[in-house]
């Protein structure tokens, strides 16, 4: 049982019809209503209004406690994200997309490359031809340039009749050879006769007889077995012609040991009573084609 108190609307002239709504709650839990005559109307603790107010307060307190717990959990979660573990967890959640992640590239296992490096060059040559017959020789039209016929017979005799190549050189002719530096037995053999521009007159051969001896007895024993593949030529002056040949040749650098190498050969031909070679230089290198 509870005491019922009726409110007089005439006591709140400024509120008028809004008096029918529930009065506003005060923070201390009581609902006093003051009149102009300082009369207080108090709702009994056992009244339904008071019981409902208490229930509402308990619900609000429970909601506040739940909100505080959620805030604590959120704070703990933020702290957990800021602390980076020493090891990766298999079932860890995905990283926050808004956070910058520094990837240590050196820790990524990369597949080792099989490509050659400067320290370990790839010495395997694909599609390397093994005999001179595998190469296509140059063809010169002997009618298109004055000295084409002369050069054609010179290369033929250098291969098949090296003993008579001296007749192709002028009395003041000069011959020399330079060799690429490589760990190749054939190149090492020829490098002993290589010309060094830093040493004046080093390994230069002058005169037809000395040129014959240098080529036949030291450099190209058995003949200069060469196949010129390309060439360029021009007239330097009246009666003076220039050639540059590119090709391959086979060298017998030791007994029963042969090697196919590349060469670039520059030749200058002068004309007096007949054509004669005045300058002859050969550059020998590993095959590049």
CATH class designation of the largest domain: Alpha Beta
The CATH architecture of the largest domain would be Roll
Cα distance spanning the termini: 116 Å
Can you tell me the CATH topology of the largest domain?
Nuclear Transport Factor 2, Chain: A
Cα Rg: 53 Å
Helix content: 10-25%
Query: What structural category arises from helix and sheet content?
Result: alpha+beta
Number of strands: 8
Order of helices and strands: EEHHEHEHEEEE
The biggest beta sheet reads:
6 strands, mixed
Count of individual domains = 2
- For the residues shown, what is the average pLDDT? 75
Structural write-up:
- The chain has a 6-stranded mixed β-sheet with strand order 4-3-8-7-6-5, sandwiched between helices.
- It is rod-shaped and about 135 Å long.
- A hairpin with a 3-residue loop joins strand 7 (about 255-270) and strand 8.
- The protein has 4 helices and 8 strands, in the order ββααβαβαββββ.
- Helix content is about 25%, strand content about 25%.
- The protein has 2 domains: about 10-80, no CATH class; about 130-285, Nuclear Transport Factor 2, Chain: A (Roll), CATH 3.10.450.50.
- Residues about 1-15, about 30-40, about 85-90, about 105-110 and about 120-125 have low confidence and may be disordered.
- By secondary structure, the chain is of the alpha+beta class.
